[in-house]
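BACKBONE STRUCTURE TOKENS:
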Amino acid sequence: MTPGTFTREDSSALGGPPWMSTRRANALDRLETLVPPTADGSEVWRYSPVDRFDVGAYRPSAPARGEEGEAAAQALGAEFGTGIVVVVRNGRVVEVSRAGVPGAVVLGAASSLAERPAALGSVVGDDFFVALNDGFAPDAVVVEVPERCVVEEPIVVVHWCETGAPDGPAPASFPRTLVQLGEDAEVKVVEVLAGPDAGRALVVPVGELVVGDRARLSYVLVQDLGMGAWSIGRLAATVGRDAKLRSFTAGLGADYDRCRVDVAALGDGSSTQITSVYLGSGDQVHDVRTLQDHAAPRSLSNLLCKGAVAERSRSIYSGLIKVRNGAVRSDAMQTNHNLVLDPTAHADSVPNLDIEENDVRCSHASSVGPVGEDQRYYLESRGLSPERAERLIVLGFFDDVVERSPIASATAPLRRRIGQRLEGLLGRGGER
């Protein structure tokens, strides 16, 4: 189903090299056969508010104008990194700083390449929103690190997504990123999704990570959009033999924040650390779906997902560990912990296992509940007020997971943002 507000003319007008136009046209053909998902249509959308999604309420975003958004994006780049910054506005790459990047590394806009990167579109699976991104993404950020090349400083990609007025179709942005590492290469990548605090928007980010044999990728994704946005994201990765992937996703903003992370261990001895954190307030919905797919022997994956919901917000976690036949001696762990800070908030946690092999070790753990009364009592007995005691407990809950950020330059900004939001939520005292 090609939505009426997303036309072939809109897609053709995006321009770019011939391979990009062909790719978009193929995506529109796929969209003709797809419909937006429903909450009861499949497990990966269960519990979600996707039934409220109206594709006709959005239109492809126009090229951004003015310097205000670019200045904000630059400030975010400086906050999360030390110099290597790519600025993207409404899906269009507008600035690339290569200071400190080895010359052999491909870094920049896909539209500047004469041929399609081979891995683009090969990692992430297809669905309605991926096809929408394929058809209407103006460009893509490409990071290709050749074999045995090490990029010392983190590469920071800031996606600034504009919003629209309450009346009429709101702008839709389609950030797209490909990170590919050759054999024994190493790089650190931070992506930040942000935009104005006010206004409505649809943001559909798609990221693909390809980690070659013995390569090492550290990756952080921070979603800090305004509260009027819907963010429906998809992140997929493949990990080669003896390679290491450490990923971290943080959901802070947006009215509806969905982040689906699929990681496939394709190489013998591959290792993956998957970390996710979210904090909900107001009427927010944070929706995290994960897949740890073990297709190779002796592969390791360790997932930790922690979040808190306050006021009337909700969280959904649904994860699957899949161990395929032949993936002997795989070791997989999946952990999801949720704090419910108000009686009107709600959290769903659904861990799953699908094991096709015998000689493996797999486990999952899940918890949903309020701040522990024993912990609160211990702190209050030492002279702290109830509000101060709760604040320290919740900060400690988040500090444990933020410390797992695989990129040091992202740790302090994450801790600061979470602390600022908790200060507002937990400073209400008798209101709760």
